[in-house]
């Protein structure tokens, strides 16, 4: 059996690993135009924190994706591969001056070992936002950061060591894959699906961040909706913004100024940070998320191992029954002979 995984971002790599676990004797290829730093995934801060509005269809499936993902990453975190895979434990705070609901997360409260309200003294750790005397609400929690810049090469190395192969190639239409001998192809092209599947429901939510060197920052900090400071192994990510249906891939200097101002207000020591680069990414947003792999929006790093397990089960069922269940208009799994 020959299986193609189209896309080599976090969704493609996690899907390739899961499919390989399930079908160890299959010939599996990851086919993608861009690998590693050429993917959207490589720029994400990679914090394990789903948004409270994220939905994989219904509450049960959504919680399962998130729990399966957490278990997958947590297992690597406690193994000798943690460093090479770019996975580390982090803890920190989310503060709000507006509403206690901003500091809550029903997915994580059920899952993480520590997720608790911040005490009064903790609400004073960061300077309060302009116009108020202190942060009103806060929570402290412990989670993980998964840096795709390390995870993607590590994941593909594991995949190749088990006999998988990678092919650099742009696919203009799924029919391009006819003649390559694949029995099944799983589409993991992220925002690329907009063009490949002509999916009007897939829209970008533009994000912009700074990557800075500030090795003294060891915890993450969120302030209300869109201000975040997330440490990685070599840089700290400062964000951000969420701009619906914006296709602008250049750095916007007004966004830069706003992010810098908000992050240095939240953590003044960042004024001494050394700028490494600025980065813009288009989050692939889809309501609803397609069957498993498209429309992960701002949470693809968090949810992709779980969605990959789900996709692998669907492939198994497809092989058994011969029926494709592609709910949503973006094609997720294809029987190549039927293209
Ligand atoms: C600023 C910002 C911060 C973020 N922070 C986080 C975070 O902290 N935590 C989190 O969980 N998520 C975060 N995200 C979201 C996360 O980055 C995405 O959900 C995730 O990267 C999507 O992964 P993907 O594999 O679907 O897409 P991609 O990484 O874009 O990969 C798509 C792959 O498909 C290939 N491809 C596309 N079209 C074609 C084609 N026609 N032919 C061949 N190959 C093709 C590409 O080359 C690539 O290999 C953030 C996003 C942004 C913008």
Describe this structure in words.
One of its GO terms (cellular component) is cytosol. 27% of the residues lie in helices and 24% in strands. It has 339 residues and is α/β, with parallel strands linked by helices. The protein has two domains: 1-69 and 151-199 and 287-339, NAD(P)-binding Rossmann-like Domain (Rossmann fold); 87-146 and 203-285, D-Amino Acid Oxidase, Chain A, domain 2. Strands 3, 4, 5, 8, 9, 10, 11, 12 and 13 form a nine-stranded mixed beta sheet that branches. It has a five-stranded mixed beta sheet with strand order 6-2-1-7-14, covered by helices on one side. Helix 1 (10-22) links the parallel strand 1 and strand 2. Helix 1 packs parallel to helix 4, helix 1 (10-22) crosses helix 7 and helix 2 packs across helix 7 (300-321). Bound molecules: flavin-adenine dinucleotide (FAD). Flavin-adenine dinucleotide binds next to helix 1, strand 8, strand 13 and helix 7.
Catalogue the ligands.
flavin-adenine dinucleotide
Q: What number of domains?
A: 2
CATH superfamily of the largest domain: NAD(P)-binding Rossmann-like Domain
Question: What quaternary form is this?
Answer: single chain
Tally of alpha and pi helices: 7
Question: How much helical structure, as a percent, in the residues?
Answer: 25-40%
Give the averaged pLDDT, no decimals.
92
- The CATH topology of the largest domain: Rossmann fold
Keywords: Cytoplasm, FAD, Flavoprotein, Oxidoreductase
Cofactor: FAD
Domain FAD dependent oxidoreductase: 3-312
Protein name: D-aspartate oxidase
């Amino acid at each position: 059996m020959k299986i193609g995984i189209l896309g080599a971002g976090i969704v493609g790599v996690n899907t390739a690993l899961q499919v390989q676990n399930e079908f160890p004797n299959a010939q599996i290829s990851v086919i993608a135009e861009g690998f590693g730093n050429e993917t959207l995934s490589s720029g994400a801060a990679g914090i394990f924190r789903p948004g409270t509005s994220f939905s994989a269809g219904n509450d049960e499936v959504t919680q399962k994706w998130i729990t399966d993902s957490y278990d997958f990453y947590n297992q690597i975190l406690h193994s000798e591969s943690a460093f090479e895979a770019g996975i580390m434990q982090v803890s920190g705070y989310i503060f709000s001056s507006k509403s206690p609901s901003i500091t809550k997360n029903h997915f994580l409260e059920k899952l993480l070992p520590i997720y608790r309200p911040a005490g009064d003294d903790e609400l004073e750790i960061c300077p309060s936002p302009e116009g108020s005397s202190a942060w009103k609400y806060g929570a402290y929690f412990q989670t993980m950061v998964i840096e795709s810049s390390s995870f993607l090469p590590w994941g593909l190395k594991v995949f190749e060591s088990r006999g998988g192969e990678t092919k650099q190639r742009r696919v203009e239409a799924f029919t391009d894959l006819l003649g390559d001998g694949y029995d099944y192809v799983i589409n993991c092209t992220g925002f690329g699906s907009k063009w490949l599947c002509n999916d009007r429901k897939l829209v970008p939510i533009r994000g912009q961040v700074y990557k800075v060197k500030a090795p003294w920052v060891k915890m993450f900090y969120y302030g209300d909706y869109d201000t975040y400071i997330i440490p990685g192994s070599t840089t700290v990510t400062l964000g951000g913004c969420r701009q619906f249906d914006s296709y602008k891939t250049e750095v916007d200097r007004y966004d830069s100024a706003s992010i810098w101002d908000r992050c240095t207000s939240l953590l003044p020591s960042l004024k001494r940070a050394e700028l490494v680069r600025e980065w813009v990414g288009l989050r692939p947003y889809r309501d609803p998320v397609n069957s498993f792999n498209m429309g992960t929006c701002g949470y693809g790093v968090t949810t992709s191992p779980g969605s990959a397990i789900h996709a692998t089960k669907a492939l198994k069922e497809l092989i058994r029954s011969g029926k494709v269940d592609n709910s949503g208009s973006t094609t997720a799994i294809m029987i190549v002979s039927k293209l």
